[in-house]
Amino acid sequence: MAKVVFTPWKTQAQLLAVRDQFYPPPSYNGPDLRSQACAKVSIWKLRGSLPHPVEATALLTDAILHDDAGKNSIFSIRATYAAAFCRFVTGLVDAKIPGMRKTMFQRAIDLGLPASFVELRHEATHRELPSLIVLRNATQRSLEWLWDYYWAKVDPHAAPVPPVSVPVSAYVEENDGDELGVKEFIRDTLSQLMKGDEGEEQQPPRKKRKAQYQTTTATQLVSICKASRKGAIILSRVLLDESVLVPAGRRLGDSLHDTFIKWEQLLQMIAESHSAFLSALTEEMVNDLAFSVQIKDTKNNAYHEAIYTWLDHILRSTEWRSSRRLLSFSYLLAACEANPNHWTDTLKRVLLKEEAKRAKGAVSVSVPQTQTQTEAKIVDENTDADACALRDLGWESLELWDSRPLGVA
Known about the structure:
InterPro entries: Las1. It holds the Pfam family Las1. By secondary structure, the chain is mostly helical. The protein has 17 helices and no strands. The protein has three domains: 155 residues, no CATH class; 72 residues, no CATH class; 89 residues, no CATH class. The longest helix is centred in the middle third of the chain and has 23 residues. The protein starts with 11 loop residues before the first helix and ends in a 17-residue tail after the last helix.
């Protein structure tokens, strides 16, 4: 005899409709319906038999909607986030749940729930409330976990949809003068990818989920770069100072192949969406090579070797070919000439070779006659947009390049 299951929704279509309101598809351009979804779940709660993941999704989403410093106090926002997060975790791993007695950590491992969620729940319950940045990030990750754990299984044919992220640009704009605050926000945004190889759940992340994390992280970092006047520079410093692009404990001669694989796609996604980022990153890299006065023997310094390897990779690899138009070759050369050492001299030779290639390519390349005027206009508009973004940071062209072939008047 089939087992009868009672649900607060009448049909599966109602549950799917609420799911689409919590997790709108990327193609959706209509109004924000998350508040309606929360109201619907509150009605279902009165009917009983409401699955915990559905209630937890509503509580976490409602906390995001409550995150408005213009209407609510910061303490109220933190308390709402903490209450929603603690209820989400407790409902899954509470030791009083019927069955074999296990600790919260054991239950979390059985469910595939990150152990850091249990730790943060303990901190929010028994100690001081975590910072707003930590709570926002935990809420985002919780909604991502709930999608994989419950909502994706409601309709197996549904494509993965990243949860709606918590406010980013609003926070950065409010704290634009607080460089430490922006740095902390960037560190928190990168934390999930930085822990990806550490096996927080003792399992490697699935490819689709990892790609989803990368896309979400890139979107948030681009928002930070655009919202803060020094966002691109601060992001570059975090990538270099926090052992992101140069692994901690790296020795002289160690390969950076795995580091390229892990971070290159994310960097390219940011550079494509915020043209000033790549220029800022390479300038900070060359500054470390040229102006680190504390280091005398730069040739045998593992960090300097790694920075040079990154710059050489960006300047010469095919993966970065389309993005190299955003680089400021003149500044990189000037920095190398200002303080000659082993790595700046080596980098200078690479820069001169690449400059010669660019000059040769600019002379020989002409627009094919088969190209339409519309395509040419799009190329010009993209180039203008890149130039404007760099001009905002104080860079401008010294003179226009005359691309006529040699011998033509």
